[in-house]
Amino acid sequence: MHPDLLEHPEELQRAYAAATPAARLRVIRQRLAGAHGEPGSTRLVTVVSAVEALARSLVVHAPGRPASTAEMRHRQFRATGPVELVQEVLRLHGARGPAQRFGEEDWDLFCLAARYRDLIVHECTSISPDRHPWLIAATEAVLRGLIEIAGLESKPKPVR
User: Fold this and answer.
1) 95 by DSSP, 3-state: which?
2) How does pLDDT run across 50-90, given as a tens digit for each residue?
């Protein structure tokens, strides 16, 4: 077996652990831009995974946590799912609960989207196309909310 194949996953893991939430968001946005043409179930997996990746980065790089411990914290939260990670981000940022922050319907649909994502990935299945739009829209709303909570939205500032 090629040694670089064995080493590459660990290199990626370290790189993503060290990357700031802003850097992770740039990669996430690139991935999401390429996902628009994906079939519904595949797109759902991508969007839920995007929320999970950003939320994990926000937990790992929460205010007051030294960058030198990022890799250790990333390993600590590596197996934590998207719902729990989003809840932890809200807690760390002193935000309202998820149903209040994102809206009850979007939060419930996001939790369901995370369950569907796991079924799609781990059971090698797909879900009927009529479910995708609701689940994807709610998940995108949660992603936008995380971006807002973390102050990652780069809005142009007026020139004075």
Assistant:
1) coil
2) 999 999 999 999 988 988 889 999 999 999 999 999 999 99
